[in-house]
Amino acid sequence: MTDFPHTPPRQSWTFSNDVNAEIRRAAATGIYDIRGGGSKRRLPHFDDLLFLGASISRYPLEGYREKCATDVWLGTRHARTPIHLDIPVTIAGMSFGALSGPAKEALGRGATEAGTSTTTGDGGMTEEERGHSRTLVYQYLPSRYGMNPDDLRRADAIEIVVGQGAKPGGGGMLLGQKISDRVAAMRNLPKGIDQRSACRHPDWTGPDDLEIKILELREITDWDKPIYVKIGGARPYYDTALAVKAGADVVVLDGMQGGTAATQDVFIENVGMPILACIPQAVKALQDLGMHREVQLIVSGGIRSGADVAKALALGADAVAIGTAALIALGDNDPALEAEYNKLGTTAGAYDDWHEGRDPAGITTQDPALYGRFDPVLGGRRLKNYLKVMTLEAQTIARACGKSHLHNLEPEDLCALTLEAAAMAGVPLAGTNWIPGRNGF
Amino acid sequence: MQVFDLEAQGLRALNATLHGLSGQTNETAWEIVNPRGSHAIAVGVDAPVDITVRGSTGYYCAGMNKQATIRVKGSAGPGVAENMMSGTVIIDGDASQYAGATGRGGLLVIKGNASSRCGISMKGIDIVVHGNIGHMSAFMAQSGSLVVLGNAGEALGDSLYEARLFVRGSVKSLGADCIEKEMRPEHLLLLADLLKRGEADHLAKPGEFRRYGSARKLYTFNIDNAAAY
Ligand SMILES: Cc1cc2nc3c(=O)[nH]c(=O)nc-3n(C[C@H](O)[C@H](O)[C@H](O)COP(=O)(O)O)c2cc1C
Fold first, then answer.
1. Is residue A271 part of a domain?
2. B119, B146 in Cβ contact below 8 A?
């Protein structure tokens, strides 16, 4: 037989090893994959934008000498007591239930030391976070777990959650493993069962009802607290406009990279838009209504560094929120725990089965033996350090662009590395004056 | 009796005044006149006072009530007594959608009919409806009791948790995971008490009701139940 050259084995792009593994997993278990975290695919993101810096026509500010302010006011539209934060990086809502009590305490400690706010989540307000947070935002969610007027009044702001970037249109699921006695009591449900969180609010539907719901919450709290409306990155132009019309003081916009405690992987990876595509639309809606800076915009979804903060602000946001990055700062997915991640069949950096409650870092668990390992004081210090670094980084960039306040950053300070990012962010492709979609091109 | 003219004095003044009341107040009887279907009447009250609303109300009347007894001498719009914590709310007329939604305690009495989603996501409140209730009532209801002297609409108790449902008339259909359950002596006692407190003991006897509750089959996710979701 003639020995013809063989075609080398060729893997399919469409049916990659990862895809095939998921097909086999689905076939073996009969259940979709549930996990925590945000979208893992590569998406157009802040990495695809660059700052131009100063030049002959724009002069920079002296680092370490000339002031670059970082503070932000939130809720100035209607609230008697708006919120004033030292830095424009806030801690996003993460539920007690998903996170342990000590982790919530650490978030409160770190945020407070850094001069910013933290946020409750599905499952209600805990003493750990109220006690350790100078400024605490109380989420008003479809499940209404633990909702009560006393906590509404001891909050500093109220956030009505319409959607999350990881799952616009989805509810939640806290699996039985994490329903301890305390979590069950706070939610008024039996211990150990899989708890569903509704995807729609039980007592309002649509923008006209939302306006009345906001009125009710304002009346209950005597018009004292700012009211935020949180939306997932689905239709940011219209959702922002409708939230403003309904009376929101602040719009919180979460893109598809945004983390979640537990959702179907298919949902995380296939529903919603990247935050880069969402911000300009939301800003446009605010500008069209004459409400930019009047109603503040907080954006989130994959924010990791001071550069991301500066870019989000340059596109017109007033502040950002971080979830995943805050957890990593606390110690989530730390390579120091590699041996334990290996025992769970994963590796540091990829661990996302937060819903199983077996987190070796003691953050996404309700198991006392595990969360007992987590030191909230140390965690809080780490978070404070990280928030300070992000702020310094954003200031460094802003000074280089000649700005005496982070809010003075503007789209004109940016260019894009890719066509997609140029079109989404509405800034020119680097080296050109081309913004795809503008002026007929 | 303190009389508050809502039309003349405005909503903000009304709720601020009611929030100023504490357990020690001597002004324990209030009458609100000219409600004209306004939203958010007497929300977030936290004092053992008696409030009577002379007329019909809009959305969320008595929302998040604690301690107070609030009577509406008319009908109530959507979300009456939503998230009530304690106290009593009595509606002389009918109630719109989501009556008693997510309520965590206290008693809601509706002397007329209640629309769809009555007792949705209820978390400990007791609701007594003298008339009928609409579709999807007690959806995802977690705890507390819903007593209906008339009939229930479609999909009663869908995705129910531990709430107890008692219906005297017909049930158009039961929602996913909701089943009829045996009426035991303790349920008859509970019903007798609820009928009494719900001003309905002259209208119906506990023995005339049937009891519905959760089959608890959806408590842990199982792919073979997917068709039920
Ligand atoms: C563990 C975890 C729990 C969360 N819980 C909630 C929640 O209860 N309510 C909510 O609105 N968003 C929740 N989120 C989403 C965050 O509020 C936020 O939108 C998101 O984390 C931002 O994106 P990032 O993680 O990329 O920073 C959660 C996120 C994580 C990582």
1. yes
2. yes
